[in-house]
Design a protein that fits this description.
The complex is a heterodimer of chains A (71) and B (380).
Chain A (H helix, E strand, L loop, with lengths): L19 H5 L3 H13 L7 E3 L21
Chain B lengths: L6 H8 L5 H25 L4 H13 L1 H8 L2 H15 L7 H13 L11 E3 L3 E4 L2 E4 L2 E6 L2 E7 L17 H21 L1 H10 L2 E5 L5 E4 L5 E5 L4 H23 L22 H24 L6 H24 L5 H14 L9 H22 L1
Parallel strand pairs in B: 5-6, 6-8
Antiparallel strand pairs in B: 1-2, 2-3, 4-5, 7-8
Classes of the chains: A mainly alpha (71), B alpha/beta (380).
């Protein structure tokens, strides 16, 4: 598959060289569309990746740091 | 200019072997993303305007200082929470941004109102009860390759990862020693993977619960971990969390999964059914885990750990390969996501034929079967 498939639509514009003042001058529509592409398709909590509380890393491990308030 | 990945970079990424240059490209894209999210919050939150104004004023004379602050991973978590609040018709809390602006002002020797007591200065430290606690910074050296980390358990934004361990001096020394040993092992085992990790990871949030590990697609460069005494398990956990960050950054450039797919599926590494994005993320993380154990087996496991290493390798090569293959064949992925699922399977496939002692293979099969059986029973 061509790399072009990784650049759907307008893509993510490079803003790293823009100052905060320049960012503030962007059109509302441009910002809204770009944010929607990044955030709109997922719940903001969806992108937290946490180990399963009963994981395959399930070898017994001893807590070797003091518990809260235990120090 | 648009952030793009060329075909070589995509191939590297899909098979879990990004170069340092590719990780730097992802970092640049994440910097753009964070600026965009912050600007969107600014537009919906007039209360944050004074902080943005102060940051913009400092930026005139100290652009690099402000750029570093805008890149703080915890600020990404604040921005996305702010956007979520705006969506719900609520107002984002500007207090956190005020604190970031205060850091800019202090460092630029400008007057500013400090946000209060206790006072958190993001990425720098906390003033509370008449005492200053800095965010410690560690530089781990391994055969000429450095991993630089801020160890940040102070920032409340990182509470999202779980119960944090705020290390005192003795615990910090313990963390440093464990991380140094794990880093040395990682560099020796797989210098390319270590170099990529060092190019992307800059903040460690130590967690209290053994086995805990987390990362977020809104906090580039941050891994949250329980730091175990075993350097092998610690190195494995670092690689695992870094994979999540990398795939999340790719997903920002090219969505990998279809939001229309709401199915939940079995995965051989968790007890709960997972959405397609979680399955792909898991495959990508366990690709690195598989490659890690393979190298341990091939380079000679630590004394007394041969069978453990062989069993881990046997278990995860089969489980990850099968899951990635099924994922690539089924619904829920975009063409880019399919390319990643196929890349994962393609990298592991030749490893399936590598000989391992029958006892270790049997043990791996027993563990895989038991995991599936437990899951099946909970579904009835």
């Amino acid at each position: 598959m061509a790399a072009a498939s990784l650049d759907p639509g307008e893509g993510l514009v490079d803003l790293t060289r823009m100052s905060l003042s320049e960012l503030a001058e962007l059109d509302d529509d441009v910002v809204a569309r770009a944010v929607d592409r990044l955030v709109g398709r997922c719940d903001t909590g969806d992108r937290l990746w946490q180990a399963d509380p009963t994981p395959p890393r399930d070898r017994p491990q001893e807590a070797d740091f003091a518990p809260p308030g235990g120090r | 200019m648009i952030h793009r990945l060329d075909e070589t970079e995509v191939t590297e990424l899909a098979t879990g072997r990004p170069s340092v240059a590719t990780v730097r490209k992802l970092t640049q894209a994440q910097r753009s993303k964070q600026r965009l999210l912050l600007e969107a919050v600014r537009r919906g939150c007039p209360a944050a305007e004074p902080a943005f104004t102060l940051l913009a004023e400092v930026e005139h004379t100290e652009p690099r200082l402000v750029a570093k602050l805008l890149d703080l991973p915890q600020l990404g978590l604040w921005a996305v929470e702010g956007l979520a609040r705006l969506r719900r018709g609520e107002t984002p809390d500007p207090g956190y941004l005020n604190a970031v602006a205060a850091v800019a002002a202090i460092r630029a020797h400008r007057p500013c109102d400090l946000p209060g007591d206790p006072l958190l200065l993001p990425g720098v430290g906390r003033w509370a009860d008449g005492r200053w606690t800095p965010v410690p910074r560690l530089t781990l050296a391994g055969d000429g390759l450095e991993l630089r980390l801020a160890v940040d358990a102070l920032d409340p934004r990182f509470a999202v990862f779980g119960d944090r361990l705020t290390p005192g001096p003795a615990e910090l020394e313990t963390l440093r020693a464990r991380l140094a040993e794990a880093w040395h092992l990682l560099v020796r085992l797989d210098r390319r993977a270590a170099a990529a990790l060092a190019a992307g990871v800059r903040t460690l949030v130590p967690l209290r619960e053994p086995g805990a590990g987390a990362s977020s697609g809104w906090a580039w460069g941050t891994v949250a971990l329980y730091v175990p005494p075993d350097p092998v398990r610690l190195a494995e956990a670092l690689l695992h969390e870094f994979q999540h960050l990398v795939l999340g950054a790719v997903d920002d450039l090219a969505p990998l999964t279809s939001p229309a797919d709401t199915s939940r599926r079995y995965v051989p590494w968790r007890a709960d059914p997972r959405p397609v994005a979680g399955v792909l993320q898991g495959c990508y993380a366990f690709l690195a885990v598989t490659a890690f154990w393979r190298r341990i087996v091939r380079t000679g496991p630590p004394p007394g750990r041969r069978q453990e290493a062989e069993t881990e390798y046997a278990r995860w090569r089969e489980a990850t390969h099968a899951t990635a293959e099924a994922l690539a064949e089924g619904p829920g992925l975009t063409p880019a996501g399919e390319q990643f699922a196929r890349g994962i399977a393609r990298r592991i496939r030749p490893w399936l034929a590598e000989p391992l002692p029958p006892e270790s293979v049997r043990q791996a099969e027993t563990l895989r079967h038991a995991h599936h059986e437990r899951w099946r029973l909970t579904q009835e």
